[in-house]
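Aim 2 progress update. The chain analyzed this quarter is reproduced below.
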Amino acid sequence: MAATMVSSAGGLLAMLNESHPSLKLHALNNLNTFVDQFWPEISTSVTTIESLYENEEFDQHQRQLAALLVSKVFYYLGELNDSLTYALGAGSLFDVSEDSDYVHILLAKAIDEYTSSKCKAAESRDDSVDIDPALEAIVERMLDKCISDGKYQQAMGISIECRRLDKLEEAITRSSDVQGNLAYCINVSHSYVNLREYRLEILRLLVKVYQGLASPDYLNICQCLMFLDEPEGVANILEKLLRSENKNDALLAFQIAFDLVENEHQAFLLNVRDRLSAPKSQPSEPVQPVASIPDPPQHSGEDVQMTDGTPASNVESVPESVPERDPSEVMYAERFTKLKGILSGETSIQLTLQFLYSHNKSDLLVLKTIKQSVEMRNSVCHSATIYANAIMHAGTTVDTFLRENLDWLSRATNWAKFSATAGLGVIHRGHLQQGRSLMAPYLPQGGGGGGGGGSPYSEGGALYALGLIHANHGEGIKQFLRDSLRSTNVEVIQHGACLGLGLAALGTADEEIYDDIKTVLYTDSAVAGEAAGISMGLLMVGTASEKAGEMLAYAHETQHEKIIRGLALGIALMVYGREEQADTLIEQMTRDQDPILRYGGMYALALAYAGTANNKAIRQLLHFAVSDVSDDVRRTAVLALGFVLYSEPEQTPRIVSLLSESYNPHVRYGAALAVGISCAGTGLSEAISLLEPLTSDVVDFVRQGALVAMAMVMVQINEASDSRVGTFRRQLEKIILDKHEDTMSKMGAILASGILDAGGRNVTIRLLSKAKHDKITAVVGLAVFSQFWYWYPLIYFISLAFSPTALIGLNYDLKVPKFEFLSDAKPSLFEYPKPITVPTAQSAVKLPTAVLSTSAKAKAKVAKKEAEQKAKDEKEKASLPESSSASGNTGKGKAPAEKDGDSMQVDSQPEKKAPEPEPTFEYLTNPARVVPAQEKFIKFVKDSRYEPVKSAPSGFVLLKDLRPTEPEVLSLTDSPSSTASAAAGPAAGQQNTTSAMAVDDEPQPPQAFEYSS
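Predicted structure tokens:
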């Protein structure tokens, strides 16, 4: 048969009309073989073959053969639906393992059909939706083939798409690398599964699989449980690890706690903390560790109250009655205290505060330049300078600039005074121990004695500042803020107290606080009402509670635009992260006749689908961006795209590129901020290219938005990584110094200068944690920050989005030991920007003076002599330090640093080595600044004393001590409370230089001294 050449299928087709079944079978077998060549000819007899398939007198095999033949003919005719129908009829003869285009295309079609019918069934919540069993059988065969061939990830992808969680479980458990595939599934479920409920189902399954493993990966389990909002499960795991005899298990528990804290979900963390069972008999010793984490012991009274009211009282009452203690309970009690410190967020806040303080590299000359070039009469720029200073020193506790310019600062009146006072909250953010005492002079206290002078503006600002200091960690301050809110009816103080309360109780959904704020809202005062609306949203963030309904009703009743806007944003915050559950409320708001509520609807869309890159949300926003009649709504619709897309920043410039060229300036402004929000801290080249033309737009507010957005994108990127950063810094300077530049863009440039150098050049803007969980505080912070269009004091909310670019390694005692790790890249790529130098600004101002020829000659002679003498001295000097640094070769040589002037000496860490050719790597010392772009180059050194519990390139990393008998050297012992104490070592000395901001060609700063505020 193989030898015969067939030139037509006519004979075989004629056999189909024979009466004998075996002839028909023979014909079908051969036609199946030749269908690829003769399908045009066979297609004329399709009806005959179809009738064979439908004839029930034939046996099963023959009918399936006919179905397969018809399916192939329809495939070649391009009728894929009919082809699939008959392929399903062919049953087992349709071979899923065959490697042909026909099989590949039909399988894809089958999976698509199956997926869409499963999705419809899920969405309608109707299990009775019929799915063709033959279709199901093909998909199952395909999945089984993938699993048996070892293509597990394909099988998992198809199972997730087809909603076959049973097959997903089988694929994971039968694979060789179960841990890796579980991590892959977590990633897929976040990136590609659009429906929230289904994503949670997948995560529940993954947790089940994780827990069935011999050695479960508790880090990932706890992350999944956090997504599922199951604090009970997390508490059980943490307790199990704490009670383990193995020290490494306790380290793992601490690491899990730090990772959970990074996601900034206050209510969840407090739930976990409260579910941990307290040690049976709390002894008095283990209380020590928590006092040793926050450094200054002199404030322990306030400190204990901060951790949590109840355990502190327990600790004091129990010890006397317990003479005998179980050693395992003692160990658990000690670990339990440490863990509570971490979960309450205090340990990480304290360490971050110390890091930002000791590594502060902010350049006070930048502020000085801004201050000198800003006109005194221009209150907008005056305020902007105060904002820039606060952002530049966010979390560093360095308020040198304010102390040095008190008379300049005192020019702020009314709301500018409110902002100036609130700025202290940003500078001291996280200074939980001393927050109250720092703000005491400004707080309302009956007579308001002290610096506040009883001005309601500074009192309101101080309450707002307390909220900023305790943002998302308000255990210790909530009560004070509530009392302040109740005891006043001055709307400015109410405004500050509402914002402060919302920040401190972020996401805790505390009913009593809600009622207090509601009382303020119902006074119908525009100023207090706006803050009350926002504050309700902050308090209830992500709860999607039915209170949104009553807020919406009040927004329809009130006449004040400010209150409506505050409520609209508050409602949007409530549906944060709720995805499809928020659709009815979003629909209601976006259809409203009031443009301010439609504006709130855009924010609701943005926050409900924050970071999901959901196509439906993007489509809706783009529709409003080009069709709404109100400019405000259009601007916000485009801006909202930034929130939806921040998990995929590369997409944003592409999506808004056309909008950034719109004729409507509001839309261009929205496009700029959308890129700023979603690409913040990435330094993405496309984002910078899109923003560059907007920074010189014809409309002033577009320029302002573009400058702020550009600073957000470029934060923590230096000139070596992208030369446009240097260009942008020079552009900012030019705008600030230009007398004829309009106020709007000048304000944008001043704010941009602050954001570029935020947090002493040690923080970036991060909206996603490393576990790909949204950082609630950061997203909420940027959402409220973007309201500064209407209300400048809200600019400070950007400080909530700052996260330190640091790797902080911690030992079992949660102290920071000194150890080195490797950054496998050129140091210049990630170093701090060079401090600006003063002479350039001066020389521009100097006017030429008339010089006599005789005196010129005399001067020239003197100068020549001096130059020769100087050169001689330089030579002698240079020979000394070079030889010493060559012999030491540690990169710590002080002499060359002194010679280079103070601008070099600022970075007195051992990480800087200065040979002529630049090294291709550098050693960093814990704790070190590690910027996001640098993370992929970070490696831990082999044979080091410390080994990380999990190899993370930044953040808090717990370290196993492989040589526990040797003495440890600790760093980060200094704390902002005791400025430059003797124990603080080189870091504090360095801090003195930074706060006095030494610059080339200026006298040396004074020696270290004790400074008391």
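The two ends are 103 Å apart (CA to CA). The chain has a mean pLDDT of 77. These observations will guide the mutagenesis experiments scheduled for the next reporting period.
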